[in-house]
C-alpha cells in the first residue's frame, strides 16, 4: 500500500503542487500551521531521512533551499521553521520522508524548536535524566565523539 504522498506523486489524489522536478516534489500542507506551510518530499518512498540515499537527500535539500525563500516571500513571512519529524517517536505520521517549511511571523508565539521540550518532564521516558539534567563535559565529549565516529 503506497503512502498518501506517493498517491500525490502519482496524481491519484489532488494537492496544491508548488514545485516538481525529476526526483522531488513540493506541495501545500493540507492542514497548514501557517499560511504557505509547504512539504518537500522525495518522489520515491523512503520512510525516514536515515533511509534516503545520499543523492536523493542532496536533491531534497536542493529543493528545500529553493523553496524556503519562495515560501517566505509568497506570504511575506519574517522567517521560517524548517524541520523533519523523523520517525514515529518524533511525531512523524506519514511514513514518507517530508520536510516541513512553516512560515513564521514576528509575534506568532509558536516559539523555537526548543519549545517542543518545554514540558518534557511530563513524558514518561525511562532515560528522563538525559533530557532534563545538565550533561557533564565528559558526557558531552562522549556523545560528540560517538556521533563523529558514525558520521
Ligand atoms: P508529519 O506529522 O510530520 O508526518 O506530517 C504530516 C503532514 O502531512 C501533516 O502536516 C498533514 O497535515 C500533512 N498531510 C497529510 N495528508 C496530506 C495531503 N493529502 N496533502 C497535503 N498534506 C497532507
Explain what the structure shows.
The chain is built from 4 helices and 5 strands. The model has no long low-confidence stretch (mean pLDDT 90). The longest helix has 21 residues. The two termini are 33 Å apart. The protein has 151 residues and is α+β, with helices and mostly antiparallel strands. 17% of the residues are buried. It folds into 2 domains: 107 residues, HIT-like (HIT family, subunit A, 2-Layer Sandwich), CATH 3.30.428; 39 residues, no CATH class. The structure holds adenosine monophosphate.
Brief account:
It contains 4 helices and 5 strands; from the N terminus they run αβββαββαα. The protein has about 150 residues and is of the alpha+beta class. Adenosine monophosphate binds near residues 4 and 93.
Q: Structural class from helices and strands?
A: alpha+beta
Backbone shape? globular
Distance between the termini: 33 Å
CATH architecture of the largest domain: 2-Layer Sandwich
Amino acid at each position: 500500500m503506497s503512502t498518501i504522498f506517493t498517491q500525490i506523486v502519482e496524481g491519484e489524489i489532488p494537492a496544491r503542487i508548488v514545485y516538481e522536478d525529476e526526483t522531488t516534489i513540493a506541495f501545500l500542507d493540507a492542514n497548514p500551521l501557517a499560511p504557505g506551510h509547504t512539504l518537500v518530499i522525495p518522489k520515491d518512498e523512503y520512510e525516514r531521512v536515515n533511509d534516503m540515499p545520499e543523492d536523493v537527500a542532496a536533491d531534497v535539500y536542493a529543493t528545500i533551499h529553493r523553496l524556503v525563500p519562495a515560501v517566505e516571500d509568497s506570504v511575506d513571512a519574517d522567517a521560517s521553521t524548517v524541520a523533519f519529524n523523523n520517525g514515529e517517536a518524533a511525531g512523524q505520521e506519514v511514513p514518507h520522508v517530508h520536510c516541513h517549511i512553516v512560515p513564521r511571523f514576528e509575534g506568532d508565539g509558536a516559539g523555537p524548536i526548543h519549545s517542543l521540550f518545554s514540558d518534557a518532564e511530563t513524558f514518561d521516558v525511562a532515560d528522563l535524566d538525559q533530557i532534563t539534567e545538565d550533561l557533564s563535559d565528559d558526557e558531552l565529549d562522549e556523545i560528540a565523539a560517538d556521533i563523529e565516529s558514525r558520521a
